[in-house]
Write the structure tokens for this entry.
Amino acid sequence: MTTPDDDRFSPNAATRAKAALKRDPWDLPDVSGLVVGVLGGTGDQGRGLAYRLARAGQKVIIGSRAAERAETAAGELGLGIEGAENAECARRSDVVIVAVPWEGHAKTLQALREDLAGKLVIDCVNPLGFDKKGAYALKPEEGSAAEQAAALLPESRVTAAFHHLSAVLLQDPETERIDTDVMVLGESRADTDLVQALAARIPGMRGVFAGRLRNAHQVESLVANLISVNRRYKAHAGLRLTDV
């Protein structure tokens, strides 16, 4: 129940709300000092994101169920990347990217609920199925992988981003720029601004706010279409949003 004394009705709250609406959407925070953890950092997508962010100067920790696997992957990537067991990775990071396989998504997050409390979590998992016709989207009971993460991590700040990136390009040291947009979804502007700023650390990449978490399903499922594009044209297609 709200009352007229509620903070959201105060003149200061109204002023802040108006200021937020007028703020330049490209005025993003400095995230260079944040430690980024990557759960699933031994897989292709996780390794690629860890490599690109570390190459841009970000402090990165790779997480895995086995610390030895994470340490091995970190050593192979270099760039000051560290490896740790998932729980330690979560505890030591300011921002945690979830890049685990869809099949292990719920189990992994359930086990890390306490370690991820208070953290900014970026879910980039795409629930997909595959058959002889190719890739197709799955729809979790919660609506999307990101919404499942939010349900399992009530004390974390869950966002969704980095779904449409080619793991091949991310891991290719000869690729200097990755010219693509990253669609960022979340409930708090402060959090989505941080994710956009992280995306912008990677040359050629741009983070664009794309709505609240309830809109994550269509963003996740679009990857099935990109897989079809890439197979037909032997490409590593991403996305560019026009007129933004």
Notes: Residues 1-5 have pLDDT under 50 and may be disordered. Strands lie at 35-39, 59-64, 82-85, 95-98, 120-123, 128-131, 134-137, 157-160, 180-186, 205-209.
